[in-house]
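User: I've been trying to design a sequence by hand for this structure and keep getting stuck. Would you show me what you'd pick, starting by listing the structure so we're on the same page?

Assistant: Good idea, let's start from the same input. This is the structure you sent:
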C-alpha cells in the first residue's frame, strides 16, 4: 500500500529535538521538501544517500504541492519537513487541501514548537498557580496579517494570561501599546532569538522597554516574545504535591 505524504515537524532548531518518528521517516524518505531557511541543516543528515532534497524557501505553494503530488503518484516516499510544529503558523491547511483534491493521503507528525523551546531556554513554567493558568499563542497584527474580530492583542491582553507571540519581533511598539493597559509597565517580558540554535540569544526586560530592547539589538525576526508575570517565577505551589492534599493516588498526610 502506498504510504501517505508525511508532514513532519522538525522542531525549533536543535537537531536532537526532532521526534524519533520524524527522524525515522526522514531515513525512509526518497523525497524531502524542507523549509530550508528555518530547519537546521543537520536534521537533513537523517536522510539516506540519494534522497532527493527540495528547499521550499524558493518555491511557491503550487510548486511545493506539485512536487509532492508528482512524486507520490510515482510511488515514492515523501516527507514535507516544517520547522517547529506544523499546527501553529505552519501553512499546513492550504497544502493539505490541495493534496486532498489530488487524492493524495497525508499524515501529520507533530514537532516541538518554538514557544516550548523558548520556555525551556528560560527555565520557565508558563502556567503558575495563582498567576496564570492559561497560555495564549498568537501574533501581533501587522499590515499583512490582520487579526480576526476579538483576537487583537488589546482584547487578548484583558485575560492577563501568559502570551507567546510568534512572528512579531518587528512590531515591538505595537505590542507595548496594546498590552500596557492590561499588563502594566513592569510586566516581565522575555525575547528568545533563534531558540535552541547555536547562536541563540536571550533578552529580558519590562514591557515598557520591549520596543527599545528589540530595536537596540536589531531583532526583527525568528524571535519568540513571551509576556506575562509567570516569568517572575513567584506563583503559588501546586496542590498536586502538597502533603496535605489528597487525590486518587495519595492520601493527605496528617499534620501533628
Amino acid at each position: 500500500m502506498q504510504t501517505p505524504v508525511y508532514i513532519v515537524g522538525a522542531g525549533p532548531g536543535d537537531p536532537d529535538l526532532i521526534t524519533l518518528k520524524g527522524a525515522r521517516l526522514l531515513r525512509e524518505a526518497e523525497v524531502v521538501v524542507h523549509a530550508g531557511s528555518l530547519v537546521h541543516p543537520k536534521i537533513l543528515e537523517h536522510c539516506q544517500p540519494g534522497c532527493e532534497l527540495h528547499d521550499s524557501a524558493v518555491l511557491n505553494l503550487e510548486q511545493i504541492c506539485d512536487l509532492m503530488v508528482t512524486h507520490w503518484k510515482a510511488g515514492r516516499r515523501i516527507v514535507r519537513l516544517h520547522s517547529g510544529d506544523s499546527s501553529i503558523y505552519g501553512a499546513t491547511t492550504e497544502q493539505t487541501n490541495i493534496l486532498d483534491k489530488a487524492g493524495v493521503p497525508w499524515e501529520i507528525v507533530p514537532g516541538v514548537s518554538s514557544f516550548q523551546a523558548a520556555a525551556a531556554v528560560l527555565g520557565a513554567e508558563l502556567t503558575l498557580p495563582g498567576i496564570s493558568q492559561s497560555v495564549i499563542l498568537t501574533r501581533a497584527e501587522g499590515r499583512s496579517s490582520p487579526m480576526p474580530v476579538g483576537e487583537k492583542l488589546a482584547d487578548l491582553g484583558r485575560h492577563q494570561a501568559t502570551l507567546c507571540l510568534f512572528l512579531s519581533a518587528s512590531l515591538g511598539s505595537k505590542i507595548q501599546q496594546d498590552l500596557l493597559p492590561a499588563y502594566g509597565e513592569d510586566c516581565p517580558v522575555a525575547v528568545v532569538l533563534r531558540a535552541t540554535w547555536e547562536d541563540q540569544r536571550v533578552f529580558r526586560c519590562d514591557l515598557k522597554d520591549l520596543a527599545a530592547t528589540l530595536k537596540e539589538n536589531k531583532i526583527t525576526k525568528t524571535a519568540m516574545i513571551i509576556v506575562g508575570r509567570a516569568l517572575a517565577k513567584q506563583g503559588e505551589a501546586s496542590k498536586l504535591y502538597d502533603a496535605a492534599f489528597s487525590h486518587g493516588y495519595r492520601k493527605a498526610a496528617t499534620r501533628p
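That's my pick for every position. To get oriented when you compare it with your attempt: The chain has two domains: 5-109, 114-232. Strands lie at 5-9, 31-34, 52-55, 78-82, 106-109, 135-139, 162-166, 188-193, 201-206, 223-227.
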